[in-house]
Amino acid sequence: MALDLEAIYVDLHRHPELSFQETRTAGVIAQRLGELGIEFEEGVGRTGIAAVIRNGTGPVVWLRADMDALPVPEQTGLDYASTARGTDPAGNEVPVMHACGHDMHVTAMLGALERLVATKDEWTGTIVTVFQPAEEYGAGAQAMIADGVLDRFPTPDVVLGQHVTPLPSGTVGVRPGTQMAASDGLTVTLFGRGGHGSRPHSTIDPIVMAAATIMRLQTVVSREIDPRDVAVVTVGSIHAGLKNNIIPAEAKLELSLRYPDETARERVLEKVERVVRAEAAASGAVKQPTIVTDHTLPPTINDVDATARITAAFRREFGEGAVVDPGMFTGSEDVSWFARESGAPLVYWFWGGVDPQKYADAAAAGTIERDIPTNHSPFFAPVLQPTLNRGVENLVVAAREFLADASA
Amino acid sequence: MALDLEAIYVDLHRHPELSFQETRTAGVIAQRLGELGIEFEEGVGRTGIAAVIRNGTGPVVWLRADMDALPVPEQTGLDYASTARGTDPAGNEVPVMHACGHDMHVTAMLGALERLVATKDEWTGTIVTVFQPAEEYGAGAQAMIADGVLDRFPTPDVVLGQHVTPLPSGTVGVRPGTQMAASDGLTVTLFGRGGHGSRPHSTIDPIVMAAATIMRLQTVVSREIDPRDVAVVTVGSIHAGLKNNIIPAEAKLELSLRYPDETARERVLEKVERVVRAEAAASGAVKQPTIVTDHTLPPTINDVDATARITAAFRREFGEGAVVDPGMFTGSEDVSWFARESGAPLVYWFWGGVDPQKYADAAAAGTIERDIPTNHSPFFAPVLQPTLNRGVENLVVAAREFLADASA
Amino acid sequence: MALDLEAIYVDLHRHPELSFQETRTAGVIAQRLGELGIEFEEGVGRTGIAAVIRNGTGPVVWLRADMDALPVPEQTGLDYASTARGTDPAGNEVPVMHACGHDMHVTAMLGALERLVATKDEWTGTIVTVFQPAEEYGAGAQAMIADGVLDRFPTPDVVLGQHVTPLPSGTVGVRPGTQMAASDGLTVTLFGRGGHGSRPHSTIDPIVMAAATIMRLQTVVSREIDPRDVAVVTVGSIHAGLKNNIIPAEAKLELSLRYPDETARERVLEKVERVVRAEAAASGAVKQPTIVTDHTLPPTINDVDATARITAAFRREFGEGAVVDPGMFTGSEDVSWFARESGAPLVYWFWGGVDPQKYADAAAAGTIERDIPTNHSPFFAPVLQPTLNRGVENLVVAAREFLADASA
Amino acid sequence: MALDLEAIYVDLHRHPELSFQETRTAGVIAQRLGELGIEFEEGVGRTGIAAVIRNGTGPVVWLRADMDALPVPEQTGLDYASTARGTDPAGNEVPVMHACGHDMHVTAMLGALERLVATKDEWTGTIVTVFQPAEEYGAGAQAMIADGVLDRFPTPDVVLGQHVTPLPSGTVGVRPGTQMAASDGLTVTLFGRGGHGSRPHSTIDPIVMAAATIMRLQTVVSREIDPRDVAVVTVGSIHAGLKNNIIPAEAKLELSLRYPDETARERVLEKVERVVRAEAAASGAVKQPTIVTDHTLPPTINDVDATARITAAFRREFGEGAVVDPGMFTGSEDVSWFARESGAPLVYWFWGGVDPQKYADAAAAGTIERDIPTNHSPFFAPVLQPTLNRGVENLVVAAREFLADASA
């Protein structure tokens, strides 16, 4: 009685859950693991699950899938589009959507585990699978580690993970070295002085302060970073004020910063702080702004040798043309904590979720950025197949590359 | 058995209610009117109350007090500071505070009615009192009129109202002609294209669009309006985005505009719209921004002759030095609808609520704007006395100026 | 042999001269004064002229006309448009134009002196006339005073002056109290670090620093000054860089600030300095910007009693409707130094130079600001008549109001 | 009698000349070529020189050196610092400096030619040398080609050139493929409406329009270009206004844009134009801004095979460690026109001019961008040696790599 993966995916897509709230998702996973006869623990790192398949002597391969969804109002128009709502950490009710494809990650992982269980006579070794919560807050991997996942389960010889992206379905992208950027999430609070909307001179307007700060932050990337280097300074949210005729007392900005390494990180952080403080001074702010780091993600660095093995395996299995070097992504991940903390090599790859014809047309027209919705977009929607099947195969091929061959 | 006005004020201050939600407040008023034996109707214009004292032949004097509070988190540190919360029109839970002194307006009005009832043998005529809801949304006066208040109650010969402000307690400010500005409240929605915070190039960033718009809106006042004219363009709220690593699809701004008259209104609105549209174009927005007018308030224009009478009466009663010309206020009011719709003259005055010594010290130090909290500030707190007593006396003196003298 | 005033005006208009370079202009004046038999001294305050008509006992009336032109490229299309060029204080060759009407001031003054000389039997007293240089740099009045003009000529009992403006020709505008604003001219130099245009990260870009400063300076007026107060912060020039592919080391801004009085002056200056310093800090500037005051002009305050006399005289002579209260002008003048230093009352008025029909049409269409070129515009061009004749009459009527009547 | 290269360099450094004005420089070159007995033509492409050494059968190698200097005020403090002044294309007198090292290029080329002449028995073939004018305006190579240099001289089999840069002296940097960026130089003129500095509302302020445009242009790079792509949008000069109290009618910006290829070029140009037009619209400009392309430079693309040969030769000659891949430079060059028009392969390399110890110290401190002056900086000053000798050797080694070996 095989898993109906497409049904699982559609169900998960319809029921997305925010970070550290993935209880229904964990329940689905637990049920399926049970059906597959796989040993697992729930509640690892709050809402995470760790599972283990022990199959004789051999390497310990860790496979990781992340589970959480995002506060995005789905606009895909799909039959199975989400209408779910959740409560964000600030207590606000927000729309929720699997706008980053973690539903696909979970489903492909369940399919891969099913396949690996079914072929246990072909390989030996140990497979540890972590269904990780709260990747979107950059907090779930560390939560599982803090909860002892590296101690309570066999230590990894290699850590493997994957992400669905706007490449053509049927394609896999992987590169040695830096695969994804380092990142910090900051909350900046600017303090003005509130008052009546008709009397700006009796206030220190934090909304104008915020606008000037945002415009000035653009110059960090446009003027202060070597044009050949990668850096992103995004203000992803701004909230200030409750009513048109009241000038509020403060404004809150949430920033997402990206860079390839620690040196760049320090430079960008220093410049961002300099701009924030100076713009508060330009407004005559009496109280200094606060800058709080909500999360810090290291760069996702693929081990050179392990990546070479997997790249070769993918090429062998899927054909030369199906495996591309996607370049460094400016997105960030917390998967590398499992590798960093255990000292194991990491390989993290991308696989395509876009209808190949649609992708080719957009490429020909030079409109990929406009026409192909990217992760976190309200329009992000991987085509079901061959995306889902390939997600399963990627994991099986990669895991088998490191597990021992039972026939050897 | 006299009303304990201070207790009423403190009670109202502790229990502020947002616009059109003033049910508890209306209940307090109704109870006191009943105690005073005054005839009244509840639910006029949703949560408003209209009361009438008929006392023989003579002019019909309308007295108006507004009742609603604001979504402001009180920071006065007073014993009786509000900790109330309410639900704003968008459905968000917000802190609520009497940051505009309408609790003082209601209490002073009750005190004045008590006094006028007690002295019915000294005057003849009719007093209609409107306890108006939703002044802060510029909607309550029109709601009462739409509900027939001008038809169901005796037609005014004069409309009188007052507002507590950051003048020294003991002072009253009034001028003929334009006393308060005209105003519009606009909601501007800017449309970008959402996406991943690490991939700005695949999005149209509505937060940068909003920041550029806000900075450019400053030039309407700084460059495009005659420096000798009065105009205010305030962005009182901005909301966009839910998470640092998601670039949202849109940003919402709430604007409060102020001007002395209709000509200026048209000019400022045209310029604001021009800036909003051009900044969307600068971002390459595909979808045009929307600009919705939430409310429109006419200027508050004091009748020249009626104002002269009241000014003289105040001077006679309180002394020459206690009556000042406060200049035009850039704040706005909907009180004038009662006068406009009925054709009656209007007199609307301000009275002081600041400790006179504190005011004098700040004036001497040139720090009034910094040290004296203004209406809508989370620190706004009139000193209880003589503010409250003077609020009562102002109304009694002004009403008696227009009522007939029973001894005559 | 009467002066051909129109020919004199056209000649002066064709030959404008920059501040403290008015040697040809002074030569024309000197020649005409000689023809009129008026005693005068040249070279007073470098290029100024002071003349005196002694005519028996009576008050000493000072009349003042300013002589200098501006670095503006004339675009009026007039037959007698200027094609002159001059050298500005920085040594650059610039176009020169009488874009402020000082040619009209000089010509009208010569016409008035001719008339007053011709009617010496009708009045007694003394007329001192100062043809002042360098009004546009706010330096000429002080230069004449430093050169002893107040000591070397009879002390004024009243100081009179006039300016041609975009009011309808035939109109005169005057008011008691503050007639023109106080002003400061500042030069702000921003220091960055130069380098190759393709390597912004190795520089501190002073042009971006300047742009951010200019945008932020807008908020001084839009947010920090009471909307009911008058203030102007103009950046009138910006110069930085020599070539597209070199990021320069510095940027130079010239600011013109306006306010009604000393209190406002201090506030605006403090805010401007705060913004300039903070924006340099936001850029990470190593070297502090410099802010140099090029000139300071006091407000031009008309004496209440003297203005009442002149207003009455103008009304009598030209009709009620021809005399208006023009409000406070935000332009500034150095004429008041003659009154301040001598303790004499000042009356300074405006007279119209715009075709009345054209003005009425623009007023009806609400396009005055767009269609009627203002002083300092390259399109500024008073209609010759009745402007010139009225300029003469204004001076004669005003002077005669204060001189003694010989028939008395 | 060998050339005294250091003296030649110092002389050229002291006497820099702007683009197409390199007559003294050409005279120095002509004199030295004459002394070396090399055949040459002057006035090729206005002020250029082409020289040819015919030495039997064999490949034709083109060597190119550029000659012009920049409008930069030298601040190196060197004994031989330039105090020269010149006249720029707009007719302004400007300071002139060899801030880009073309004096070093010319001198090294003369040294290389001397060496190649002296060793004519070791090689056969033809060397054509172009001393090119006006590289800084991106116009000189095309001017020489338009003047027939490719027809009048032997057709190249390879084109070689070099540039001194802020690498450690003793180092050479070269890479196959795109070595330098494509570039456009634009002049943007923004049209407002001029007027009096005290009456901004009667004007359309082009300086505020320019500031808003500059701030918005930052978002092209910060938000609209893939963070992994290379793009630069520099505003290298801004000029507007002549006096603090006159709001001018227009503002002129000079932009330098950089990108790796034609696709990126079109994108950036489209975005820049969009921003410029929208910001003019935001100001209510009546007249559309003009955008004029002053020059267009293609990317400098090194031929893969030819670059491999030269890289190997450099490594052999100078040691492995002395040859680095410098990455793509965002600077641009017109040298590639000689290769594009003739179809010959191009190799263009960089060589270091910074004191190695100083460079190492700055690298260790992470202060290279701050402490090592880059090309076009007023502080740019290559250390004389070994820079000059290595410049000579680079050219000799590279030329000999392609010339035939006489001993073969």
Automatic annotation (TrEMBL), chains A, B, C, D:
Binding site for Mn(2+): C100, H102, E136, H163
Domain Peptidase M20 dimerisation: 185-281
InterPro entries per the UniProt record, alphabetical: Amidohydrolase, Bact_exopeptidase_dim_dom, Peptidase_M20, Peptidase_M20_dimer
A biological process term (GO) from this entry: diaminopimelate biosynthetic process
Cofactor(s) in the UniProt record: Mn(2+)
Pfam families listed in its UniProt record: M20_dimer, Peptidase_M20
Bound cofactor: record note: The Mn(2+) ion enhances activity.
Gene3D superfamilies: 3.30.70.360, Zn peptidases
Keywords per UniProt: Hydrolase, Manganese, Metal-binding
Regions annotated as coiled coil: none
Enzyme class (EC, first level): hydrolase
Source species, domain of life: Bacteria
GO molecular function, one term: N-acetyldiaminopimelate deacetylase activity
Transmembrane region(s): none
Catalytic activity, EC: 3.-.-.-
Name listed for the protein in its UniProt record: Putative hydrolase YxeP
Organism: Microbacterium lemovicicum
Gene name of this polypeptide: yxeP
